[in-house]
Design brief:
By secondary structure, the chain is an alpha+beta fold. The chain has 22 helices and 42 strands. Strands 1, 2, 3, 4, 5, 6, 7, 8, 9, 10 and 11 form an 11-stranded antiparallel β-sheet that branches. The chain has 4 domains: 169 residues, Sandwich (Jelly Rolls), CATH 2.60.120.560; 181 residues, Exo-inulinase, domain 1 (Jelly Rolls, Sandwich), CATH 2.60.120.560; 269 residues, 3-Layer(aba) Sandwich (Rossmann fold); 253 residues, 3-Layer(aba) Sandwich (Rossmann fold), CATH 3.40.50.1820. β14 and β15 form a beta hairpin. It is globular and about 100 Å long. It is 23% helix and 29% strand. The longest helix has 20 residues. α17 packs across α18, α18 crosses α21 and α21 packs parallel to α22.
C-alpha cells in the first residue's frame, strides 16, 4: 500500500538481540562511508567507472557496481546526477541477488533513475516518487529497509513506503547502462546497518585491551586507522566476549605481512586444541616467503582446520574485506565478497571441542598491519534446515577468471605460427597453397562451393551528377544467388583509357555507404582520376536488417556452409564490377576500409591477388594479440571456424606481398585494434617476407595521432593518397596528396538509395533454405544387423563433427567439505584433460543407491529444483558447470570466447560434451555406479545428448529437460551465435538432427521432458526406432 509519510525513524525499528553478552543490543547501528579511490568495498562488473574518493562516475558499459557484502536491515543514502542532458537511465539495487547468467543486472529490487521515473520502485506501480526529483540536477535519496518494509525519501521529503520486500538480505548496487542511459555521478554514499555495532572508534583503543600487557607499545590509532606497528607486544583482545555473531573488518597488509583474527578465544588467546577458539588467517598470500605454506595457512582460511577456496586476497597495500560468521559450531568466512570457507562439526570434528563463546582478537605477528571499519552484528547463517540447496550450489569453486585464462592459454597454444623461411621461393611455395587451402577449407565449404562458381547478375540504375567533374552510377549486384548488394560507382565524367580503380568498404557504421567520411574518400579518389566503388556491408545502411546480423552467419555454418563466404564473395563481385569497366587498369587495383572495412580489406587483399594495394584501417590484429587484448575480439566473421589452425592474421598480412600494403592504426583508438598493440606483431611477421622478396618498401604503415581515435578522417586519407602515389603513380609530384574539402558534395542517404528487390536473401533465409533437405542422411536402421554398423560409423562421424575429446581424463581435488541436512557436501575442482578445470558440487546421502550427474546452461546454482527429487530417491548428486556455463561463464564479451575456441579447431559443443562425458567416466570409476545424466535447458540437453551418444559406457540413462526436438528450431527461432554458441557447430544439422543423435545414444534409456505436443512428431523416427530396439524412451510433458 502507498503511504506519504515516514515516521521519525523511517519505520518503527526494533532490533532485538538482547541475550547477555551477545554481539548487539537493540537500536545499535553502524554507518559506513562507502566510497574510496580504490572502490575497495565494491565489485565492478561489465562496466567502466572512476572514483576520486568523493565522487563515483558511472562511465560506460552494461554492468553493475555492487557491494561486496550482503546487508539485511539498513539505511542507504546517496546523491546523484545524470551527465547526459536529453535522456538518462540508471538505477539503484537493494536486497539484490547476483545477476542471472547472461544478464548484467540483478532481477530485483531496483529504484529507477530513468528520466521521468526517478525514485520509482521498478515493478511496483504504487511506489512512485512523483514530482520530488529535480530532473538533471543533483538529487539525494534515502532508503530504509527493515524486514519486509522499505521507505524512500527524495530530497528530504517522503516518497513511498512498501511492505512487500523479499528476500530478507542481499546486495546494494548501482546500475551502469551507458551509453544508452548515459553516464552518472554518485556521491555521499552512506550505508547504515541497523542492528550492527562498530568496534573501532578511530580515536583510541576503547573496547579493546592488550592481552596481559599494555597494548600501546604495538597497537596505535593513526588517522582513524587501527595499526599494528609490528613492534614486540601483545595481541589485541576485545573487552567483551561473544557467542553467535557476524564480524566484519577491513584490513591491509604490507609486503610479507602476517596477522590473524582470533575468534571465541579464551583470555590467553589459545586457538589450537580442545576448549580453544579458532584463528582466521590474514596474510600477504603473494609473498615469496610463503610459497611453501599449507593451504590452510593462506588468507581467510580457518587456520589448521579448512583452507580458503578460492584464494581472493588482494595485493599487499590494498584493502581487503573479511567477514566471519559464527553460529554454534558452524563457521562461514567471506573474503572480498566471496564465500571461501564453510565448516562445521560434522565435517571438521575438531570444531566440536572448540569454544562457543569467547573473545575476539587481532594478532600481532611482528609485521605492520592496518585495520578499519570493524563491526559486529547478529549471525546471518540460517539454521541447517532452513539453508536452501541453492546456497550450496552457488558456492564459488574455481573463481571468476580461471576459465577465461584456461581458454586463452588453450587457444594460444593452437594458433598456427608463422613458418621459418629463408628464401623467396620457399615463401611462394608456402603462401600459394595456404591461400588455396584457406579458400577451400575455411571460406568455400559445403554449399558455398557452388556459390563460388555462380556468376551473379549486375543491374545498373540511376546516374547522379552532383558536379561536372564526376558522376555516381547506382547499381546492385548479386554476391550469391538471390543476395543483392547495393553499390555506388564514382567515376570521372570523362574517364581515361587505363585508370587505377578502388574498392571502398566499411565497417560497423549504421549509415553504411552514405557515411560522410566514406563519401569523402570516394569523392577525393574520383577527383584524382581513380574510379571508386562504394559497396554496402552486411548489417549496415540498406542492408541493416536482422537477417544480416553478423551473429546469424553462423546459421549457415550449422548447415555446413562457410559463413564467411558471403563476405568474401561480396568483395570479389565488387572487384568484378570494377574490372569490367573499360577504363580499369587491372595492374592498379586498390581496396581500403575502416574497422570492419579494414577486416574486409585484409581478407580480400590476401585471398584475391587481383588486389595490388591494400589499406586496412584499424580493422584487425593477430589472434595472439586478441588473446592479450580482448577489445580486439570481433564478430563471427573476424574469427572464422578453423581459420587459426591454418593461418593467423599475421600470415594474411604477409600474404599481401609482393603487392603494396599500407597498414593504418590509431594511437588512442577508442574501439579496438589500438596501434601500440595491434600493429607491431603484424609488421614483425610481414617485414621479413617483403624483404625476402626484395620489395621491403612496399610494406608501409601509418599511425594516426590526430584525432587518434577510431577513424578514417583527413590524416588517414592523406596517408592513403601517399600510398596510392607511390604504388600507382611512381611517386609523381603531379599527384596531390592533400585532402580536398568536398563537404558541399556529400549527399544524403535518401539521395544515395539504390532500388532493391522486394525479397532479398540474407543469412537467415539462405540457412533456412539449406536446412530443408537436412540432415542429408536421416534414415535410422531398420534391423539389428544394420544397427551395429550404423552406430559405429555414426558415432565416429558425430565425434568428428563436434570435435569430441575421448582422451579427456579427469582427476578431482576436494576444495571444501561440509554437511547439509545429514548429507555430505563436497566441492570439487575437476581437472579435465590438460586444459580445463570444471567446478562441481557433490551432495551425498548416507546410503546412496546411485549417482546422478546434473548440468544446466544457467549454471549449477540454478539446479536446486531438479536436484531435490534425486536426493529424495537417495541418489548421490553431482552438479557441474561445463565450459561456458555457470562458474565457467566468461564475464567479458562471452560469446566471442566461444568463437575463439572454434577458430582453433574446437567446437563449444564438443568441449562441453567431452567435459560431461569425462566427468561421467570419472564418477563411474570412483563411485561404482553408472551415471544418470540429467540436463536442464535446450543447450545443456544438446550437450548432454551428444555426450551420451559419443561415450555410452558410463551412462545409465539420459534425462533431458526442455530440450530441442530438432536442430531446425534454432533456425525457426532465428537465434544468433550469442544466444547459444553450442548450437552452431559446423555442419551438425547437415549430418544429424536430434532423432539421429538420440538414436546413437539409445543403447541406454532416454527421457525427454518438456517437449511441446506440437513438436513431438519430430521425434517420431526416434520413437519408432526405440520400439524396434526395445529401448525405453519417455516423452513427458
Amino acid at each position: 500500500m502507498r503511504n506519504r509519510f515516514v515516521p521519525r525513524l523511517a519505520l518503527a525499528i526494533l532490533v532485538i538481540w538482547a541475550r547477555p553478552g551477545s554481539a548487539a543490543a537493540e537500536d545499535h547501528a553502524f554507518t559506513l562511508t562507502m566510497l574510496d579511490k580504490d572502490l575497495s568495498r565494491w565489485l565492478v562488473t561489465d562496466c567502466a567507472v572512476e572514483c576520486d574518493g568523493e565522487v563515483l562516475t558511472l562511465k560506460e558499459g552494461n554492468g553493475l557496481v555492487r557491494s561486496l557484502h550482503r546487508v539485511r536491515d539498513f539505511t542507504l543514502e546517496w546523491t546523484y546526477r545524470p551527465l547526459q542532458s536529453d535522456t538518462w537511465d540508471s538505477g539503484v539495487y537493494f536486497r539484490a541477488d547476483l545477476p542471472p547468467q547472461g544478464r548484467p543486472w540483478p532481477v530485483r529490487y531496483q529504484i529507477n533513475l530513468r528520466k521521468g521515473q526517478e525514485g520509482d520502485l521498478v515493478g511496483d506501480p504504487e511506489a512512485r516518487a512523483d514530482s520530488l526529483v529535480n530532473p538533471g540536477a543533483w538529487n539525494t535519496m534515502r532508503l530504509t529497509v527493515v524486514g519486509h518494509h522499505a521507505v524512500l525519501d527524495v530530497n528530504g521529503k517522503p516518497a513511498w513506503r512498501t511492505d512487500r520486500i523479499e528476500p530478507l538480505d542481499g546486495y546494494v548496487g548501482f546500475q551502469v547502462e551507458a551509453p544508452q542511459g548515459g553516464p552518472f555521478e554518485i556521491r555521499d554514499v552512506k550505508l547504515t546497518e541497523i542492528g550492527a555495532r562498530g568496534l573501532l572508534n578511530g580515536v583510541d583503543l576503547s573496547g579493546w585491551e592488550g592481552a596481559g600487557k599494555d597494548a600501546s607499545s604495538c597497537w596505535q590509532v593513526r588517522d582513524g586507522l587501527l595499526v599494528c606497528t609490528g613492534a614486540e607486544g601483545p595481541w589485541l583482545r576485545s573487552v567483551e566476549e561473544y557467542d553467535d555473531f557476524n564480524f566484519r573488518i577491513e584490513y591491509k597488509v604490507g609486503p610479507g605481512g602476517n596477522s590473524g583474527v582470533y575468534v571465541r578465544v579464551p583470555a590467553d588467546g589459545n586457538h589450537h586444541g580442545d576448549q580453544s577458539g579458532v584463528e582466521v588467517q590474514i596474510l600477504d598470500d603473494a609473498a615469496d616467503r610463503y610459497r611453501e605454506l599449507k593451504d590452510y595457512q593462506f588468507s581467510a582460511s580457518l587456520y589448521a582446520v579448512q583452507a580458503a577456496s578460492p584464494r581472493t586476497a588482494r595485493p599487499a597495500g590494498a584493502w581487503n574485506l573479511l567477514e566471519i560468521d559464527c553460529r554454534g559450531g558452524s563457521y562461514a568466512i567471506t573474503h572480498n565478497g566471496v564465500l571461501v570457507v564453510r565448516a562445521d562439526t560434522a565435517l571438521a570434528p575438531e570444531l566440536a571441542a572448540r569454544r562457543l563463546r569467547g573473545f575476539l582478537g587481532l594478532q600481532n605477528h611482528s609485521e605492520e598491519v592496518w585495520f578499519r571499519n570493524a563491526r559486529v552484528a547478529p549471525s546471518s547463517q540460517p539454521a541447517d534446515a532452513a539453508r536452501p540447496v541453492a546456497d550450496l550450489l552457488a558456492r564459488p569453486v574455481i573463481g571468476s577468471k580461471r576459465s577465461s585464462s584456461e581458454l586463452l592459454a588453450h587457444v594460444g597454444s593452437r594458433v598456427a605460427p608463422m613458418p621459418p623461411l629463408s628464401t623467396a621461393e620457399a615463401w611462394n611455395a608456402y603462401a600459394d597453397p595456404l591461400r588455396s587451402r584457406i579458400l577451400d577449407e575455411v571460406v568455400f565449404r559445403g554449399a558455398a562451393r557452388a556459390w563460388r562458381e555462380t556468376r551473379g547478375a549486375v543491374e545498373w540504375q540511376e546516374v547522379l551528377e552532383p558536379v561536372p567533374e564526376y558522376r555516381i552510377r547506382k547499381l546492385r549486384f548479386e554476391a550469391l544467388p538471390g543476395l543483392w548488394i547495393p553499390a555506388l560507382l564514382y567515376e570521372p565524367t570523362s574517364p581515361g583509357e587505363k585508370m587505377p580503380v578502388m574498392l571502398n568498404v566499411n565497417g560497423h557504421d549504421p549509415n553504411g555507404k552514405s557515411a560522410p567520411y566514406k563519401q569523402t574518400r570516394c569523392v577525393n579518389l574520383v577527383r584524382r582520376g581513380i574510379p571508386s566503388l562504394n559497396v554496402e556491408w552486411f548489417g549496415m545502411g540498406q542492408l541493416r536488417s536482422p537477417g544480416f546480423d553478423h551473429g546469424r552467419l553462423n546459421q549457415l555454418e550449422l548447415c555446413g556452409a562457410g559463413g564467411i563466404a558471403p563476405f568474401l564473395l561480396a568483395m570479389q563481385r565488387g572487384l568484378d564490377v570494377l574490372l569490367e569497366q573499360p577504363y580499369a587498369d587491372p595492374s592498379r587495383v586498390g581496396v581500403a576500409g575502416l574497422s570492419g572495412g579494414g577486416w574486409q580489406t585484409i581478407w580480400i587483399g590476401a585471398m584475391d591477388t587481383r588486389v595490388t594495394l591494400s589499406n586496412p584501417v584499424a580493422g584487425y590484429s593477430g589472434f595472439l594479440t586478441r588473446i592479450a587484448h580482448p577489445s580486439d575480439l570481433g564478430d563471427s566473421e573476424q574469427m572464422p571456424t578453423d581459420m587459426a589452425t591454418m593461418a593467423d592474421y599475421t600470415h594474411l598480412t604477409a600474404m599481401l606481398a609482393p603487392r603494396h600494403a599500407l597498414l593504418t592504426y590509431n594511437v588512442k583508438d577508442d574501439c579496438c585494434f589500438k596501434a601500440d598493440h595491434a600493429l607491431p606483431p603484424l609488421l614483425e611477421a610481414a617485414r621479413p617476407v617483403f624483404a625476402l622478396l626484395g620489395i621491403a618498401e612496399r610494406l608501409r604503415h601509418h599511425v594516426n595521432q590526430d584525432p587518434g581515435t577510431h577513424n578514417f578522417e583527413k590524416d588517414n586519407r592523406e596517408a592513403l593518397y601517399r600510398a596510392i602515389r607511390a604504388a600507382f603513380f611512381a611517386d609523381s609530384a603531379d599527384f596531390s596528396v592533400v585532402d580536398i574539402d568536398c563537404a558541399a558534395e556529400i549527399l544524403t542517404a535518401e539521395q544515395l538509395q539504390v532500388a532493391m528487390p522486394e525479397s532479398n536473401a540474407d543469412f537467415h533465409t539462405i540457412a533456412v533454405g539449406l536446412s530443408q533437405a537436412m540432415p542429408l542422411e536421416p534414415a535410422l536402421p531398420e534391423t539389428a544387423d544394420a544397427d551395429a554398423a550404423w552406430r559405429t560409423e555414426r558415432t565416429m562421424r558425430l565425434a568428428q563433427t563436434v570435435r569430441f575429446h575421448p582422451e579427456y581424463d579427469v582427476s578431482g581435488r576436494r576444495v571444501a567439505v561440509e554437511s547439509w541436512r545429514g548429507h555430505r557436501v563436497t566441492h570439487w575442482k575437476l581437472r579435465v584433460g590438460d586444459a580445463w578445470t570444471v567446478p562441481a558440487t557433490e551432495i551425498e546421502p548416507p546410503d546412496a543407491v546411485g549417482t546422478a550427474l546434473l548440468v544446466g546452461e544457467s549454471g549449477r546454482a540454478a539446479l536446486g529444483a531438479i536436484l531435490q527429487p534425486w536426493l529424495d530417491r537417495s541418489y548421490r548428486v553431482i552438479a557441474v558447470d561445463p565450459f561456458f556455463w555457470g562458474e565457467q561463464r566468461f564475464p567479458d564479451r562471452e560469446y566471442l570466447s566461444a568463437l575463439l575456441a572454434a577458430t582453433v579447431g574446437d567446437r563449444p559443443l564438443g568441449i562441453q560434451s567431452s567435459q560431461i562425458a569425462g566427468v561421467a567416466r570419472w564418477l563411474r570409476g570412483h563411485r561404482g555406479h553408472k551415471v544418470e545424466l540429467v540436463a536442464v535447458g535446450p543447450r545443456a540437453s544438446l550437450a548432454a545428448l551428444v555426450a551420451a551418444a559419443c561415450d555410452r559406457e558410463p551412462i545409465a540413462g539420459a534425462h533431458l529437460h526442455n530440450g530441442l526436438a530438432s536442430l531446425k528450431e534454432v533456425l525457426e527461432r532465428d537465434l544468433t551465435f550469442a544466444q547459444g554458441p553450442e548450437y552452431f557447430c559446423f555442419g551438425l544439422l547437415e549430418r544429424f538432427d536430434i532423432p539421429q543423435i538420440a538414436a546413437i545414444a539409445a543403447t541406454n534409456p532416454l527421457h525427454f521432458h518438456g517437449i511441446p505436443e506440437s513438436n513431438r512428431n519430430r521425434l517420431q523416427p526416434l520413437v519408432d526406432y526405440c520400439q524396434r530396439r526395445n529401448v525405453p524412451l519417455t516423452l513427458a510433458p
